[in-house]
Amino acid sequence: MKLTAEAELSVPFQDCDPMQIVWHGNYFRYLEEGRQALLSKLDFGYNVMKAEGFAYPVIDTRMKYVSAARFQDKLRVIASLEEWENRLKISYRIIRISDGKTCIKAYTTHCAVGIEDGEMRFASPNCLLERVNKCLNQC
């Protein structure tokens, strides 16, 4: 079973280039909307991470541009948890709602870093593993 969550957004004017096409760097902000929805589903949002003593910076990412999104397009960001034992790997699809066409395929990889010592962890802490297991059993 794969954990997934979705977020929807409308492309604002300021995210577009002069041709009203989303500037490529803005898609990373859209991924963040999906990531926040997924982390909320796990009850492991950024405030909880911090309270548990961890940050999860992006250590690797990849994005494939399939079809351009444009000003005022309604988009659905689907985020799926692919890995969680040693790192977080989240895959994404950004879909234009009007026609169901995929605009973006992407992933981000995150590693736990202790807030107090700044050290990277090479295994996910129990506070995350417990939440993932709980969600896998209940969601």
TrEMBL record:
Statement: the UniProt record of this protein carries the keyword Hydrolase: yes
SUPFAM superfamilies: Thioesterase/thiol ester dehydrase-isomerase (SSF54637)
Keywords carried by this UniProt record: Hydrolase
Entry keyword Signal: no
Highest taxon in the source lineage: Bacteria
Pfam family, one: 4HBT_2
InterPro entries with a match to the protein in the record: 4-hydroxybenzoyl-CoA_TE, HotDog_dom_sf, YbgC/YbaW
UniProt record similarity statement: Belongs to the 4-hydroxybenzoyl-CoA thioesterase family.
Protein name: Acyl-CoA thioesterase
Organism lineage: Bacteria, Pseudomonadati, Pseudomonadota, Gammaproteobacteria, Alteromonadales
